[in-house]
Amino acid sequence: MPGGCPESDAATTDAFIAEAAEYHRLRMVNLLNPRADFPRFQVARFDIERFINAPAPLAEFRLPDGWVRKFTLSAAQASLIEGYLKQFGSAAWGAGRMLTRVRIDDLLRQVELLPADDERSPGTGEIYDPPVVAYG
Fold this sequence. Notes:
This protein has 136 residues and is an alpha+beta fold. It is built from 4 helices and 3 strands. A 3-stranded antiparallel beta sheet has the order 1-2-3, covered by helices on one side. The radius of gyration is 18 Å and the shape is elongated.
């Protein structure tokens, strides 16, 4: 394909971008509500964490089948969010006040890459990601 990339490279790029976007969404979704501590899961086809630390051609980050990411808050993060919710509430005004007092990086979920057959993983069948719920 002159002036472009082969179709397989374009498909790899599209798949990587879609997975990376979902990765970042799952680190942030519903952080400022009472159920923020509930874990989220994502089927992992690329090693996004390794790409973030040392970018290279995307094909180098392809994972074999059978990997899942688990997104969780630490106890300290959950406690911090709970404290701010008690102080400011979960309405938009309260969320804005919270974000003026804490570094957003301190709130983002931690990511763990797990084999799908790990006891902490739901496998690669049904991956649970609760819907976004508006509070306030």
